[in-house]
Design a protein that fits this description.
This protein is 30% helix and 22% strand. With 102 residues, the protein is of the alpha+beta class.
Length: 102
Amino acid sequence: MWKQPNSILFSVPLYPKGYIHFGRGVYGGGMTVGTSPIMARLDIPSDCGDYPQDWFVVSYERSIIKIKNSFKENDNILPESLLLDCYRYHYELLKNKSYENR
């Protein structure tokens, strides 16, 4: 399981309000090979919608440069693939917690 990043690598202002922050995940223990995954966190005011506020693993893209370029090309509008990663990651966390509580 990946823990939240120790630091933010970069942030992107979102249209119309809010930010998305990116960092590298920290491994929770044991051994791992390769670079840690990119993680993101949405920082969006509640008047713009109800979005999860915790860190999530970005699975659709492994390159920070490509992520930055996708925001430049889309006028800082949140790509659907990132939103999908966010909800999928939080759904899995909730599902695993409900199985542990049985």
